[in-house]
Structure formats: structure tokens, C-alpha cells
Design a protein that fits this description.
Elements lengths: L6 H7 L1 E5 L4 H14 L3 E5 L5 H9 L5 E5 L4 H10 L3 E4 L7 H7 L2 E6 L2 H9 L4 E4 L2 H4 L1 H11 L5 E3 L5 H10 L4 E3 L6 H6 L2 H14 L12
Parallel strand pairs: 1-2, 1-8, 2-3, 4-5, 5-6, 6-7
Helix pairs in contact: 2-11, 3-4, 8-9
Length: 219
Amino acid sequence: MQEHRLIPTLRAAQVVPVIRTSTTRAAETVVHWLRQAGLRIFEITMTVPDAPALIRDLAGEPDLLVGAGTVPDAPAALACLRAGARFLVAPWVDPMLAGPCREAEAALMLGAVTPTEVRAALAAGADVVKVFPAASAGGPGHVRALRSVFPGVVFCPTGGVEPDNLAAYLTAGAAFAGMGGALVDERRIVAGDRDAIQAVARRVLELTGGAVPHGSGAA
């Protein structure tokens, strides 16, 4: 199966920040901070209030690659794609998401944990298999085991991925990884602790070879 044209960009980035917050304002704030630190790819989950509107705002920025996460059904997929999402993510297998993605030329990431689920995700049209929840399913060792029987599959572990274990996931065979709580700590967002969040972002960039000068882009 030919890889979707976005896969090389995602491979090069190695990390996709997963934006999951309880308010739209918190999501807007953390995306702004992470952009200042140098990150350019964002998965905006549908659990963020009015997520399609935020996707629309961000998708208008030519330097960003924006997708939608936790997409529950085809109508939500269409709303996100029309807003400008270039990839869709669901932590389960939903064959109804493939059609809208193909029409929009967007990449589709479907969730799986077991080999049976991996095959189901591929049959449902997934370009990427999201291994979720990665940490509680066995971490890098689980990804390595899946990779051994699916050597051609593009895996993206999410759930418990942190700077300290990112290299282990990539070495185990992940093409790239989704990183949520380690980057998007809502307590720090609410407290206005930009420095702490940007410090994690800069560490991620250093680990992935995308480091930017300390303090660059700061408002």
C-alpha cells in the first residue's frame, strides 16, 4: 500500500502534539505557546469545545499542519475536513471515516491495540495505525511486537508517550508518536506557566532534531 503523502512530514516531525483541554481558551493558549517554542503540527481533539472552529483558524496558517482527533463519526469528520483538517484520528476502528478522508485527500489514523484490531484498522482504510493506549498496553515492547508481524504498517503510539520514553518508542518501530499530557498540561495552562510548557516543547524538538534557539518566538 502506498503511503499517504503526509506520512513523510509526520515521520520527520516524530511527534504530533495532541491538544485535549476542557476549554477552547486553554486549547488556543497552549497552541500559541507551543508554536512559539517551534512546534508546527497539532491534533485538535473533538473533546475541545468548538474544535472545528479552532481547526479552521489554525488551518489558515500556512506553516501549520492541523488535524482532528477523537473524531466520533462521519458528520464530525466532514465538519473537521471542511474546516481544513488534513488528517483525522480516532482511537478506535470506524470504517465510516475513510470515505470523507479519501475525498478530502486527508490522512486517516485509526486506533488499535491487538493484531486483530490492527488488521481491522487497515481494512477500514487507515493510513496510520494509532496504538492506543500505548503505555498501558505494554509501551515500546508492545509496539515492537506489533511491528514484528506488521513490518510495513505506519504505527503512531499515543497515550503515556513522554520525552523520556520517546526514543524507546521510535526505536521499537513507531514512525512517530502522539504526545498529549506531557506537552498539554491543563493545570499549567490555567496557571499561566508558559515557561514550563515551552521547556517540554523545546526538549521534544531537541530530541527530534528540530531544536530552535532558546527563547525564539517568545512574545
